[in-house]
């Protein structure tokens, strides 16, 4: 049973332990049984409109034992983040509980014209003017932080916009990505486990695949989904839980087993993008490689498909822009989406999974431009003497191209 397999239990609150002021079925008994077994318990909530002591009181009123040091709220974790990065003055779109947590961490709340962080939490009274001010401070260099990015929250009349709606308003108008502290991002998980014995067996129990399960898996932890099972098609999808239980009593069900989570060797992408790559041979059968300025690795020319472009037009344009050569497309070599080599992290924090259409191309004009800003060097290589520091997926693409190569100049 799950309760015997772990030493540390991280619980989401809303929808797992309680809804509103009512404990959920089995929650009080299950948490008491874990305490009896001397298990370590943490409570993690994205709710930014509360404090750790208010959560303790709320749990205690439901006859659930809880201590302040066991509670990680997104507001408290945001205050710890600002403190740890030495940010001292914040413009806050959030309620008094968030401001209180920030002040406890030594952060000054400012309404004036300068600040070193903009903190977005829950604020029912936020105005368009507030959003404009926040955007202005971020444009002036303030760090953009958000307690969480939940898109909606459940209300009796149906889902209503949550903190994520304000975060998006500021993100689209500044072009800046926020530091998001709440689940599924790592800060709260790190706060929850930072003082534990490294050999502890830790499990996250949550009801939201997009925050609780994804977040735990990104942090390398196992995760149990409470409530209706929700299966994503890919076996390695980070949002698929390792076990599913109906309520917390399921932790003590001898028939429920937990699968082992082995964190794949790539970060979880937020989007899938169409890409193109071109293998260009010269008249001697040598292949064109460019040394990329961003990572110093050699690779074949590659890039994005722009709106209203065919993939053939995209690779012809990319090769012209990156190398100065005019090419024509000879044939499609393959379409590649292996996540290990095709998921990229950008310096701004964006992570994308590329589906790359790889073509063999033939030079029909132009001349090699070695001075493009994206390249440190560019040259044709004998296919038996390729540089060692190649982008990881390119040897496979080159091998596929050579295997299909019918021209007589390749041997
Ligand atoms: Mg929840």
TrEMBL record:
<dbReference type="InterPro" id="IPR015797">
    <property type="entry name" value="NUDIX_hydrolase-like_dom_sf"/>
</dbReference>
<dbReference type="InterPro" id="IPR020476">
    <property type="entry name" value="Nudix_hydrolase"/>
</dbReference>
<dbReference type="GO" id="GO:0016791">
    <property type="term" value="F:phosphatase activity"/>
</dbReference>
<dbReference type="Pfam" id="PF00293">
    <property type="entry name" value="NUDIX"/>
</dbReference>
<feature type="domain" description="Nudix hydrolase">
    <location>
        <begin position="271"/>
        <end position="404"/>
    </location>
</feature>
<dbReference type="GO" id="GO:0005737">
    <property type="term" value="C:cytoplasm"/>
</dbReference>
<dbReference type="Pfam" id="PF13344">
    <property type="entry name" value="Hydrolase_6"/>
</dbReference>
<dbReference type="InterPro" id="IPR023214">
    <property type="entry name" value="HAD_sf"/>
</dbReference>
<keyword id="KW-0378">Hydrolase</keyword>
<dbReference type="InterPro" id="IPR000086">
    <property type="entry name" value="NUDIX_hydrolase_dom"/>
</dbReference>
<protein>
    <submittedName>
        <fullName>HAD superfamily hydrolase (TIGR01459 family)</fullName>
    </submittedName>
</protein>
<dbReference type="InterPro" id="IPR006357">
    <property type="entry name" value="HAD-SF_hydro_IIA"/>
</dbReference>
<dbReference type="InterPro" id="IPR036412">
    <property type="entry name" value="HAD-like_sf"/>
</dbReference>
<dbReference type="Pfam" id="PF13242">
    <property type="entry name" value="Hydrolase_like"/>
</dbReference>
<dbReference type="InterPro" id="IPR020084">
    <property type="entry name" value="NUDIX_hydrolase_CS"/>
</dbReference>
<dbReference type="InterPro" id="IPR006439">
    <property type="entry name" value="HAD-SF_hydro_IA"/>
</dbReference>
């Amino acid at each position: 049973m799950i309760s015997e397999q772990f030493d540390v239990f991280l619980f989401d609150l809303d929808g797992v332990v309680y809804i509103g002021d009512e404990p959920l079925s089995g929650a009080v008994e299950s948490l008491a049984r874990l305490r009896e077994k001397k298990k370590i318990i943490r409570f993690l909530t994205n709710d930014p409109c509360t404090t750790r002591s208010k959560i303790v009181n709320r749990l205690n009123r439901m006859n659930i034992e809880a201590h302040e040091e066991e509670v990680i709220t997104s507001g408290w974790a945001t205050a710890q983040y600002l403190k740890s990065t030495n940010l001292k003055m914040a413009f806050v779109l959030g309620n008094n509980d968030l401001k209180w947590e920030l002040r406890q961490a030594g952060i000054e709340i400012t309404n004036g014209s300068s600040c070193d962080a903009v903190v977005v939490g829950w604020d029912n009274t936020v105005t368009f003017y507030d959003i404009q001010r926040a955007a202005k401070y971020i444009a002036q260099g303030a760090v953009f932080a958000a307690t969480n990015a939940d898109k909606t929250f459940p209300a009796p009349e149906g889902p209503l916009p949550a903190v994520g709606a304000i975060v998006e308003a500021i993100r689209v108008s500044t072009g800046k990505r926020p530091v998001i502290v709440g689940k599924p991002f790592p800060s709260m998980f790190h706060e929850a486990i930072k003082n534990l014995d490294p050999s502890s067996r830790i499990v996250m129990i949550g009801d939201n695949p997009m925050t609780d399960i994804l977040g735990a898996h990104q942090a390398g932890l196992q995760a149990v989904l409470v409530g209706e099972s929700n299966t994503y098609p890919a076996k390695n999808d980070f949002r698929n839980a390792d076990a599913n239980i109906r309520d917390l009593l399921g932790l003590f069900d001898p028939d429920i087993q937990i699968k082992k989570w082995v964190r794949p060797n790539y970060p979880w992408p937020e989007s899938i993008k169409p890409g193109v790559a071109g293998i260009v041979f010269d008249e001697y059968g040598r292949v064109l490689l460019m040394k990329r300025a961003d990572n110093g690795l050699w690779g074949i020319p590659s890039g994005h498909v722009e709106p209203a472009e065919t993939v053939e037009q995209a690779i012809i344009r990319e090769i012209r822009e990156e190398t100065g050569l005019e090419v024509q497309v000879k044939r499609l070599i393959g379409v590649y989406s292996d996540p290990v080599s095709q998921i990229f992290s950008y310096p701004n924090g964006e992570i994308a999974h590329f589906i790359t259409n790889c073509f063999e191309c033939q030079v029909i004009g132009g001349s090699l431009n070695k001075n493009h800003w994206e390249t440190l060097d560019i040259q044709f290589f004998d296919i038996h003497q390729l540089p060692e520091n190649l982008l990881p997926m390119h040897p496979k693409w080159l091998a596929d191209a050579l295997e299909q190569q019918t021209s007589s100049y390749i041997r």
